[in-house]
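Re-run requested by the PI after the first attempt was lost when the workstation crashed. Everything re-entered from the original request form. Ligand of interest: iron/sulfur cluster.
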Amino acid sequence: MEPLMSGLIDPFNRSIRYLRVSVTDRCNYRCFYCMPSQGMEWEERSEFLTFEEMTRIIRLFTELGVDKVRLTGGEPLVRRGLLDFVKQLHTLPGLKDLSMSSNAHLLGEQAQALKDAGVSRINISLDSLDPETFRKITVNGDLQPVLEGIDAALTAGMQPVKINMVVMRGLNDGEIESMLDYAVERGADLRYIETMPIGEAGIAGTDYYMPAVEILSRLKEHLGEELIPAKGGKGAGPARYYQVSSGPVRVGVISALSRHFCDDCNRVRLTAKGDLVLCLGQEDRVSLRDGLRNGFSDEQIKAVILDAIAHKPRSHEFNDDNSKVSLRHMSSLGG
Ligand code: SAM
Ligand code: SF4
């Protein structure tokens, strides 16, 4: 094998520095745009990587130049042993930034411990501030513990706390403005997300599609001022950020159906069963679990990772009629 000289560079000269790790496909909520209404076929738990196996893979990624990891799900807080896993990850010398995505239902009691263990930032899903609408979207969710979880993350000093609102016409678009006021009051960042056609549930969600430009023009009207693009507001992620008044709060919009973010893509995803998924909007994936459970050395697993990155697709295909992502569920990918 060739010695690694310059980290993970894909065929389009993009440097891969960011790994999103889905620790479970399970969730305590059933958001209708994420989980199919007839229920999910869960992976067998024995199929999941153990936390020891995940730690090993993440260590190898950090040795290859990844310095940013986000833990996601399903809902990461429903997997037992998560706190000890976070503590393990925090000891990896190459890992500079450890964050999490959560629905916050179980966050109230865990936020401080997670922050102390090394989770510095958190993204929290919150699609409505109205208990009934919240329940309608999440199917079995409960707004109050989520609001308490958000406050606990802020009190624990996670910075930033980012709220993610999937905006759906006719369901919660009447709350675009009140959600902004809620975030500004708390000093939380806010991102408005267009529905993405991933899996059957995601495709059903696009019936309520509301384009980012419309969201932006509503915000402009609400604030009575032009939205100023935030400094560094177009990073490697999919969101474009704007400053609200003089700051510090930023709002972002994530427009999945335009391809604008693919050129700067710096990320790959690891599923709970150890598949390395190269693009959110493509089926390409490589099992890392096979090598792991067949006694591969660190160097052999790194070679599998390098080979996979050499096949990272250029962009997603959300706009193509024959896109194959309809086969997959967002809940097993973690967004
Ligand atoms: N359970 C955690 C949560 O809800 O934040 C983490 C996993 S969840 C899959 C990650 C993000 O994906 C959430 O913000 C959720 O709203 C978003 N998401 C799921 N399905 C989506 C879809 N079809 N379109 C747009 N966003 C979606
Ligand atoms: Fe669960 Fe998050 Fe999917 Fe909602 S969006 S069902 S909270 S994984």
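Saved to the shared folder this time. The chain is about 30% helix and 15% strand.
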